[in-house]
Design a protein that fits this description.
Largest sheet: 8 strands, mixed
Radius of gyration: 20 Å
Helix content: 25-40%
Shape: globular
Length: 299
């Protein structure tokens, strides 16, 4: 069995960069999505790549629970074009959030459509896969240890991102102890805090909701500090979890450490490949956000 790398990063921890790094090097990525209540395995074959696009074959498998464990698959050839981050809503560039679908002329699925096309007879059809991709968190049941086929789920996996439930670690302790476990961090603290503040309106942990960052800072900055403290707590909890199960881990500096030296995958990406900094330039709020980040680091 190939060596599995487990990435123990939470919110704003470089998971997007690592996903593209794995795909570019034809590595199989497993995403254990607790919020969406599904597990996704992605096989990729990259035929050609440039700095902002890839010619690739992608094979996706979605494990989900509808009256028992199911998996649906879709394999397609595509040209993937990388697009720089565009804010939905943020501290740097706040915008009104639209909950509708813009620019999509395709009609949504009716309740009857969803009920009909999620029957077993439609598994692996395009419409089943599309409905599961869009609506599994509404129609799927809890993924629990009683239904999971670990041998199938972990087969061929090179990289596991998104932290799985603790029972998965308990059930596969030898696998995790023998894997390469990576705990990411940033030595550039200011850049890290600015990035987190940039996602103030979007990111978990949610101690605040639908509040403009600068307004909150000017009225009660301690609430901003508490929100930022939750990220540190999340990182500490991960390390405690690894120690609890005697899982060895490596600290990985996103600002200075070499991806190639740690992961061993030959084709590298620019370190700022998924960084959102380009969206901050010439923005009048950026200097204020940076001052807040500096104050937090120095307090």
């Amino acid at each position: 069995m190939n060596t599995m790398y487990v990435y123990w990063g939470g919110v704003e921890s470089g998971k997007a960069h690592l996903k593209h790094y794995a795909m570019l090097n034809n590595k199989t990525n497993l995403l254990w999505d607790l919020i969406g209540n599904y597990i996704k395995k992605i096989y990729t074959t990259t035929h050609h790549y440039e700095s902002n696009w890839r010619d690739e074959t992608i094979h996706r498998i979605i494990y989900h629970n509808i009256n028992g464990l199911r998996k649906c698959e879709k394999k397609e050839n595509r040209i993937y074009q990388f697009q720089n981050y565009s804010h939905k809503s943020s501290a740097i560039d706040p915008k009104t959030i639209s909950h509708g679908i813009r620019g999509n002329k395709r009609k949504g699925y009716s309740v009857d459509d969803i009920k009909k096309y999620t029957q077993l007879e439609y598994v692996n059809t395009n419409i089943y896969f599309d409905i599961i991709s869009k609506h599994i968190n509404q129609i799927g049941q809890d993924m629990n240890r009683d239904i999971l086929d670990y041998d199938d789920i972990f087969n061929d996996v090179d990289l596991l991102t998104f932290i799985p439930p603790e029972y998965v670690i308990q059930d596969n302790i030898n696998l995790f102890q023998s894997s390469v476990n990576i705990v990411p961090y940033k030595s550039n603290k200011i850049d890290s805090i600015v990035s987190r503040l940039d996602g103030f309106a979007d990111y978990q942990p949610h101690l605040e909701y639908n509040i403009d960052l600068l307004e909150l800072y000017n009225t009660d900055k301690n609430r901003v500090w508490c929100w930022l403290d939750e990220f540190n707590k999340q990182e500490d909890d991960v390390i405690e979890l690894l120690k609890k199960y005697k899982i060895p881990y490596l600290m990985f500096d996103l600002d200075t450490d070499s991806y190639k030296n740690v992961f061993g995958w030959s084709i590298e990406l620019p370190r700022n490949y998924t960084h959102r900094k380009s969206s901050w330039q010439n923005n009048e709020r950026y200097a204020m956000i940076q001052d807040i980040a500096t104050e937090y680091v120095q307090k």
